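Exercise: predict the structure of this protein bound to zinc ion.
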Amino acid sequence: MVYDEVERWRGSARWRRRVRFQLATNPLCRMCAEQGVVASATVVDHVIPHRGDQQLFWFGDLASLCASHHSKDKQQAETKGYTTAIGADGYPTDVQHPFYRAGCAETKRHPGGE
Ligand SMILES: [Zn+2]
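Solution:
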């Protein structure tokens, strides 16, 4: 039922203004940029999932994303806690990725650098 309310917020002129402003000031996909790719953003997403929280919905940080990142990585991040995107250096772009938790990231990044 709280999501009926979210639908109403999303349909409001106030939200559309916020989206327009976000895309005007941050026109590139944030997640593409992390991978060294320049792509124009078409979707605005809450950095912290608002889950119906009015304060977060209206005042939480927004990220500009391309459509494919919004539908894939973002949902993956919300369900798994991390994304599986790989950056230009061949390492996962998300520091929450299990790769970094396993503690092997440092040795692999600096071979022989003990
Ligand atoms: Zn993207």
